[in-house]
Every structure is written in C-alpha cells, then in structure tokens.
Design goal:
Elements: H1 3-16, E1 20-25, E2 28-35, E3 38-43, E4 48-51, E5 71-74, E6 79-82, E7 98-99, E8 104-110, E9 113-118, E10 123-128, E11 135-136, E12 141-145
C-alpha cells in the first residue's frame, strides 16, 4: 500500500473521530487506531505498531474552571428561565445583590405556566448561571448564593 493512501486514511481517522479502521487489499492489511492521542499504524506481517511521523499529538483538554463556592439554587422543574416578570421589566435580582429567604429570583415557564422561583436561603447572589430565555433542566443550578 502506498504512503499517500496511508496518509489519507490517517487523515480520515483524525477528521471523523472514529477509533479504529482496518483495510485489507489482497494480502496487505493495515489497521489505524487512535490510541493515547496519537494515531498508530499496524501493518502485516508481524503487525508491529509505529507512530506516524509528522502527525502531531492531539492537544490536551483545557482544565475545567474552578468550582464557584456558595449555595447553588437548583431548578425544581424543566422549563424556560426568565430573569424578569415580563419583557422590558427590570430583572428580579442582579449579581452582588442581597436576597432574603422566600424572595423571587426568577421565573421558569413550564407548559405555558409561569412559576416564580424563590430563594431557599438568605445571602448575596454571587453568580447567575443561566442566560435569560434559556431552557433549564430539573436540578440544574440557576444561582449561586453565599
């Protein structure tokens, strides 16, 4: 099998995200698999692995951001998150604002019903974790209150 075909197969594996491909042409057999972030080529006879020169290793995944501290107010239902009672109205709360237990923080629309979501603790809003108008899932953190 010629080197250009091998290079095309390696590119195919990298672009498609598949883990492994094996090609047989007559008595020639080639297996390309993505392991340890670098494609490996195994060719018969003997099937000894060799790293392909000129193929850069995959970049390392970025480190996740640090977890913010504080009490996470979670969504009690699936629906659409709204920060204000109506379009054009002022938002219920802003980051840095003090809130009391039972104070309305947002609205979640579910099945055409508007449900006011109240704070379950008193404190200061440290972060608003959802954008206005975004869908939310049950148990998804909405606010961080410290």
């Amino acid at each position: 099998m010629d080197l250009r075909k091998l290079k095309k197969l390696i590119d195919l594996v990298q672009e498609s995200g598949i883990g492994e491909i094996e090609i047989t042409e007559g008595e020639e057999k080639v297996r390309i698999s993505r392991q340890l972030a670098q494609p490996m080529v195994m060719a018969s006879p003997g099937m000894h692995p060799m790293a392909m020169p000129g193929v850069p290793p995959a970049p390392a995944a970025p480190a996740p951001p640090p977890e913010p501290k504080g009490h996470a107010l979670k969504s009690p239902m699936v629906g659409t998150f709204y920060r204000a009672p109506s379009p054009g109205a002022p938002v219920f709360v802003e980051v840095g604002q003090s809130v009391s237990k039972g104070q309305t923080l947002c609205i979640i629309e579910a099945m055409k019903l508007l449900n006011e979501i109240e704070s379950d603790v008193a404190g200061t809003v440290k972060a608003i974790l959802v954008e206005n108008g975004q869908p939310v899932e049950y148990g998804q953190p909405l606010f961080l209150i410290e």
